[in-house]
Amino acid sequence: MSVLSFQEVSVRYGAHTVLDDVSLEVAAGQTVGLVGESGCGKSTLARAAVGLAPVTGGRILLDGRPVPNRGRRPVQMVFQDPYSSLDPRMTVGESIAEAMPERLGKKARQAEITRLLALVHLDAARAADIPGRLSGGQRQRVALARALAARPRVILADEITSALDVSVQGAVLNLIRDMRRDLGLSMLFISHNLAVVRYVADHVAVLHAGRIVEHGPTARVLGAPQHEYTRHLLAAVSLKEQK
Amino acid sequence: MRALRRPVGVAGLGLLALVLFVAAFGPVLWGERATVVDTGDLLAGPSAEHWIGTDNLGRDLFARVMVAARLSILLALAATAISLVLGIALGAAPMLVGRRLGRLITSAVNVLVAFPGLLLVLFFAVVFGVGARGAALAVGLAGAPAFARLCHTLVAAVSERDYVAAARIAGVSRVRVLLRHVLPNIAEPLIVNATMAAGGVLLTFAGLSFLGLGVQAPSYDWGKLMQDGLNGIYVHPLAALGPGIAVVLAGLAFNLTGEAFAAAPGRTRPLEAAREPAARTAPVAGTSLSVDGLRVTIPGPAGPIHAVRGVTFTVGDGEAVGVVGESGSGKSVTALAVAGLLEPPIRVDANHLVVAGEDLMAAGAHRRLGTSLAVVFQDPMTSFNPAHRVGPQLAEVSRFHQGMSRKAAFARAVDRLRAVRIGEPGRRARQYPFEFSGGMRQRAMIGMGLMGDPRLIIADEPTTALDVTVQRQVLELLAEVRRDTGAALLLISHDVTVVTDVCDRVLVMYAGRVVEELPAKDLRTLARHPYTRALVAAVPDMETDLNRPLAVIPGLPVDPTQVPSGCAFAPRCPFADDHCRAVAPALVAGVACHKSAEVGR
Amino acid sequence: MRNPTGGRWPRFALRRAGRLLGSLWVLVTASFLMIHLVPGDPVRAALGPTAPADLVLAHKQELGLLDPLWRQYADFLSRLLSGDLGVSISSRLPVGETIAHRLPATAQLAVAAFLLSVAVAVPIGVVMAVLTRRGRGRRAELAFTGTSVVVGAIPDFLLGVGLVYLLAVQTHVFPVAGLDGPDSYVLPVLALAIGPAAVLSRIVRVEMLAVMEADYVRTARAKRLTPLRVHVVHALPNAVTASLTIGGLLLSSLVAGTVLVENVFAWPGLGSSIVASIVAKDYPLVQGTVLVYGVGVLLINTLVDVVLALLDPRSAIGES
After folding, report:
1. Tens digits of pLDDT across chain A (243 residues)
2. How far, in Å, CA of A44 to CA of A52, rounded?
3. Can you give the pLDDT at residue A240?
4. If you average pLDDT over residues C16-32, what whole number do you get?
5. C40 DSSP assignment
6. Digit-coded pLDDT (tens) for B20-78
7. Spatial separation of the C-alpha atoms in residues B188 and B194, rounded to whole Å
8. What is the pLDDT, as a whole number, of residue B506?
9. ipTM for the complex?
């Protein structure tokens, strides 16, 4: 279990500031929800932590040391689009095996693939399938299994349910909660959907225009929001329940 | 080998096999005949012995054309290989070298690719000198920039895919990512393009030799034969046209083969003629929309897709009706069908389909809908025409349907933009859609519907592409418009909360049918269909119990090409029995379920 | 949308002019280096192995080949700026004069073929798209695709030969070769324009088909406009911008295509002279001609971009 902390992180592309002095901590074994609207910089924050976006200011530390952004990252990421996150020409087993930290013998590799697929509630026979034969929800589970294969200390989940149908979304959310309970993973869970974040996260941070405007325990932030923008967001969602 | 199922593919591959055969065995079969000098028969016309005549030494031209195939094809393939290898190297390099060097390579390629191939060929021909080898190098080098550009575009597209990012995060090296993930995924388009390029190169070579810059005597390829034949075109046209036909056939062989593989999407089988005309029924009075037995069939590669399978409902005057369902449930197709926006080969059948008083199953009704029906689509970013300014796009409705002058229509457009709360409407009306934000565009879209006097507004997922705070503004605007105009609303959404918020009545669709119809306020509490209940329970809201797992619907949505004969939800339903799997339930008293009595308990 | 409308055009003009200058520099430098890239001694190669050594030396002096490379480059640039392209080795005439004499014939040919191919391709492509959309008119589609692929695969010089045979040799409708009166333009322009027209009409059709499936065309249909108005007012402008982007390269390749066609028709333009000068290794003349062709191509590309920016304002800010 590890602590991922963002310390005054800024990301700028030319004159355009995407993230401005963002400080956030994902404590050991905790799921932190990051909410905000499109373009507010939530994905960029996750991408910066794995070296996919250039950090122009501040530091991103894992257990007090900078996150390496070469070679195998101890921080793994799962992406939004289930149709783009798996190589269409590689079998599920090959995709998962590619992320494993050590070279295993054929048998050991098969056993590990089976174990990982079981963790995400998929049948071992799926290992031989190519992604084209899987549904969106199944693909997202394979993507999770691949992230787990790298033995990460922290997982970043970037809008992993927003491209899924509602009947499938529930299963993936349940899986995320099971994984935190059973594996004790630290996770940054990014979503624009407050109800989803409320369901899976212990802490919530609200990102608006590249700045964190509020963060704290989920029940407090969503129950008694301090910042004007958080209230604005909540009002938009709970419009229907209030009447 | 889907390509083989199309006539173009068969013609291309057959021709290619023939060309390659001649290239391989031509010199063996005709080599001798091509060199026999017959001084008694110089520059002869076609005859039984010499099919396309003889040249100035009396040699048989047909044999020479056959023999020339090998050199022509070999040179073309060699040049294509040079282009391809260089192109891949230049196109993939930006991914491997640093950002700055990569950008330099890319812009150099962009400059070079702007010059036509023939000009580059001439340039390199100067450098490498006249002759077959120089020409092969020249044509090969000249083709490299185009391949580099193509390869770069393909690499860039694949590199943006998340699986490449995932591989990088998993510690896979750049070279390995290139070899394992990128190249295999761009190989197909590259090979297709190389095949077509080979056809082009063949023609370029012929051109070079024709100009006297390519193959030199005593060697000969098709271009050289053409050059020799051109002088005698008055008396002996076949001497020039014969090798020309060979060039065109060989070029076609490569082109058609590439073409067939490039465009080999599964062919859709046209629908068979409609069965007997559906029985005509009368519309329900006092409705803005009345549909009976709506069926929509879309031709697909694996047979017809029955997207909507007999849907009957009404929207009363001034009423708001919501349609919910997952992707593939047929809800959007239903919306497009009742808006009259589906075109052949999609087939729309109904016992009646009456929208705002117009019978859509009759001819000529559509035009009058221009002012009485408003439609709002899902994606505001693509629903406006990027080539025209916003104001005139709105004004077009009044100019076309209400006969207004350009000026009056524009003034009305500005007024309508103000009505949907767009600030500075006069200035905004003169802007292009790309200068609007997503929420603003969706409001302008609603404004477009208000140019006329709508009795019904059909909104297909109007808020799905928008942020939550903007969603609320758009929904409030829709409610306000209904208050002001008294228009009825048909709202399509996958979002249960949006529909319950805005609508009076809700239809739940599954696999092309309405499975339940109930008042919106009862959706969360009084639903009787197991699918409706599961759908509501599967979506977390701000009151969901955090100590219990979310409800899950097991299994996968129905494949619309293979809808089971019984209840479509039966394979995923905990209540289903053999009767459910055999007999499709009808919609009776608001629910289509054999087990609704059990479920309700 | 964040850009003030006023700033769009100056910035586009600046960027596009920068690109044009960059490409011009590449072109000029490449044509300068061309003579230095020739393996061996270019002057010896041009004059032949029997030429006396002092003649070779004199020519080298005249071409400045004995100076250091940077000096030659500087001289080349300064001469170019004053419009001096050097003197032909074989004819001893100034290269600029020769080119000025021959350029008009080539330019007329290229412009006429350009206009003809666009004028033919756009209407055909649009009509075919409307007739064959969504799997309708399968036979018409097959006939059109087949014809355009076959016609597009026939190289322009071969078309020229065929046209000469059919319309000049057999029927004497048009003159066989040379530039003499309006009649003599018909065959060369046809030979040059037919191929690009076939390819361009396919591109227009494909783009038009894609545009007709776009959301904004559905919006236009939802406004219940007539099909003609939907196609002409809403689909066509977008299809033309997309086709121009792809077809622009095709049209600039037409400039180079004149080389072959001119040789078929003995057209008194640049194309005939560049081939003769390559064979004769008359490097100054080749250099000058390549420069002129290159500038022509760059001007066409710039023109296409400006037209695109006028038709589709996004392209003026969108591209990097």
Report:
1. 689 999 999 998 877 888 999 999 999 989 999 998 887 888 999 999 988 888 998 999 999 888 887 777 889 999 988 889 999 989 999 999 999 987 788 899 999 999 999 888 888 888 998 888 888 888 999 999 999 998 898 999 999 988 888 777 888 898 888 888 888 889 999 998 888 999 999 999 999 988 999 999 999 999 899 999 999 888 887 654 443
2. 8
3. 45
4. 89
5. S
6. 999 999 888 888 888 888 777 777 777 777 777 787 777 888 899 999 999 999 999 99
7. 10
8. 95
9. 0.89
Window 236-265 of C, Cβ < 8 Å to B = 237-238, 241, 249, 252-257, 259-260, 263-264
CA gap C221, C216 in Å, rounded = 9
Query: Can you tell me which residue has the tokens 């006969």?
Result: B403
Chains that touch C (3 or more CB pairs under 8 A): B
Beta bridge partners of B358: B355
Residues 6+ apart with CB under 8 A from B364: none
- Indicate the Cα dihedral angle A51, A54, A58, A63, nearest 10°: 0
Considering the domain B70-256 in this protein, what is its CATH number? 1.10.3720.10
All residue ranges of chain B with pLDDT < 70 are: 1-6, 234, 263-278, 600-601
C-beta atoms of A84 and B163 within 8 A: yes
CB burial of residue C52 (10 Å; 0-12, 13-18, 19+):
exposed
At B421, is the secondary structure helix, strand, or coil? Answer: coil
The CB-based long-range contact list for C291-296 (8 Å cut-off, 24+ gap) reads C291/C27, C291/C28, C291/C31, C291/C80, C291/C85, C292/C99, C292/C103, C293/B119, C293/C255, C293/C256, C294/B115, C294/B119, C294/C27, C294/C31, C295/C24, C295/C27, C296/C107, C296/C110, C296/C255
- Residue pLDDT, tens place only, B540-574: 888 888 888 888 888 777 877 788 888 999 988 88
Q: What is the pLDDT of residue B3?
A: 57
Query: Which of B166, B467, B472 is facing A85, going by the closest CB pair?
Result: B166
Query: For residue B489, which of B542, B521, B446 has the smallest C-alpha distance?
Result: B446
> Where are the domains positioned within chain B?
70-256, 270-379+453-601
* Alpha helix positions (H), B97-182: 99-113, 117-128, 132-159, 162-169, 174-177
Report the pLDDT value the prediction gives residue B555, as an integer from 0 to 100.
78
Quick one: pLDDT at residue B2?
56
- Whether chain A has a CB inside 8 Å of the CB on B549: the answer is yes
Q: Does C134 touch chain B (CB under 8 A)?
A: yes
Identify the bridge partners of residue B305 per DSSP, sorted by sequence position.
Answer: B298
- Distance from the Cα of residue B205 to its chain's centroid: 35
Interface check A161 vs B, CB under 8 A: no
Distance CA A115, CA A122 (A): 10
pLDDT of residue B275: 59
DSSP string, A71-126: SB-SEEEE-S-TTTSS-TTS-HHHHHHHT-SS---HHHHHHHHHHHHHHTT--GGG
Place of tokens 């003995």: C266
d(CA A117, CA A119): 5
The torsion angle over the Cα atoms of residues B308, B313, B319 and B322, rounded to 10 degrees, is -40
SS3 A236: helix
* Residue whose token pair is 């990569």: B102
Burial class (CB in 10 A: 0-12, 13-18, 19+), A178: middle
User: Is the model's pLDDT at C318 over the cut of 50?
Assistant: no
Rg of chain B over all Cα atoms, to the nearest angstrom = 34
Mutation site for A-interface testing, chosen from B158, B159, B163 by largest number of A Cβ within 10 Å: B163
Cβ–Cβ under 8 Å, residues B318 and B269: no
Please give the class, per CATH, of domain B270-379+453-601. alpha beta
Task: Output the pLDDT for position A117.
Answer: 92
* Minimal-distance CA residue of chain C relative to B446: C219
B467–A88: do the CB atoms touch at under 8 Å?
no
User: DSSP code of A160?
Assistant: T
Q: State both tokens at C134.
A: 């969504």
